[in-house]
Amino acid sequence: MSTSTTVKEVMRELATLEDPKMREANERRGDDHGVNLTHLRTLAKRLKTQHELAIQLWATGDTAARLLATLVCKPKTFSAAELDAMVRDIGAPKLLDWFIVNVVKPGRHAEELRLGWKDGDDLVGRAGWSLTTERVVKNAQGLDLAALLDQIEKEMKQAPAQKQWAMNHCLAEIGIHHPKLRKRAIGIGERLAVLIDYPASPGCTPPYAPMWIAEMVRRREEAGKAS
Question: Is the pTM of this model over 0.70?
Answer without folding.
Answer: yes
